[in-house]
Amino acid sequence: MGPMPRKPSKDADRLRRAWSGLAIEVFRLNGDLIEGGDALVRDLGLTSARWQVLGAIALSPVPLPVAHIARNMGLARQSVQRVVDDMRDDGLVRTEPNPHHRRAPLVAMTPQGEAAYEQATARKDLWADVLTEGLSAETIEAAGTLLRTLQQRIAASHGHIASIAATRKETQE
């Protein structure tokens, strides 16, 4: 039998509640961002997923294979592959031979994809102006810093999640 679980302090309990509340708000924000993004770019032949993949391509100085796009954006490779295939069929991206890997072609925007991405970015800027009215840049930057820190901690914890779950199970027995 393992050690008896300690009763969390009021501070620890408050942090746990704050973390849970923040996670719920991030899930809600993600859903609203996707819904709003879809509405913002629908007439450009884009969805939020397509826009996100075009953004990853635009941010890279060189064409990337699907796996690198997925890794850079924190997405599943298979999901990005489906989006790239659809966008290729619609003329928004093209694939090029990859000199480093025969079966992993490089993805690049077409002129049509570049135009759609530029229009989407211009619309995003106008949307940002409305959404950030009355907020300070410092507040938004601090929120971004907090989210990046939490994302890094979550990514670093992936190797320990099974042991955390096992420890929790032991304390319940």
Automatic annotation (TrEMBL):
Membrane-spanning ranges: none
PROSITE patterns membership: HTH_MARR_2
UniProt source species: Methylorubrum salsuginis
This protein's UniProt keywords: DNA-binding
Keyword ATP-binding appears in the UniProt entry: no
GO terms classed as biological process: response to stress
Name of protein: DNA-binding transcriptional regulator, MarR family
Domain of life: Bacteria
Entry's Gene Ontology molecular function annotations: DNA binding; DNA-binding transcription factor activity
Limits of the HTH marR-type domain: 19-152
